[in-house]
Amino acid sequence: MKLLSVFLLLLCMEKTYAQTNILVFKEKNRNVKSWVHDNFIHFQYITTQWMDGKIKKITSDSIYINTFALRQIPNQFGFPTIDTSWFGLMGIHVSEIIGMPGNRYRSGIIGNGTLFQIGGSSYILVNILNSIIKSDNIFRSANITSIGIAAGIILIGKLQSLKYRPYIRIRKKYSMQIISTQAVK
Known about the structure:
Blueprint: H1 2-15, E1 21-27, E2 30-35, E3 40-45, E4 50-58, E5 62-74, E6 80-93, E7 97-101, H2 114-133, H3 141-163, E8 167-169, E9 174-180
Helix pairs in contact: 2-3
């Protein structure tokens, strides 16, 4: 029995290994997300192309990713199915990662200005239609003031949509780092 337990212990020790490096996405000094060997990652490359891949190796300044793409293609019966195309191993320096997907809860119609644009234009449309139905002058001073405020809200929504990005740019506030967990000799 002891021989069997020693054999199982040696077998388990052979399959375990120490983690060498960790890729960390940071917001100032706070770790947002981390990846290790065999994790999947989705990021924006320096060419502004979004890439997906499985991390094969993390060195002191680079990561090696087996990139892939998911595509919807018809099967033999004509129904859509998902197909995975693997493109091979790609070495990427950490500084070549320029963007990460944004927080899905932070995005939406409030963040990108759509709500302001819809609300302002709806108010203008309803105001003009009510003036026509009631046979009121559309260009009276009280009406022009309220239409002007609604146009300002549309402008605020448009400016907000120009500023909005559904992803996080890696600049001063956000960074990608590789943390080495190997013992220094």
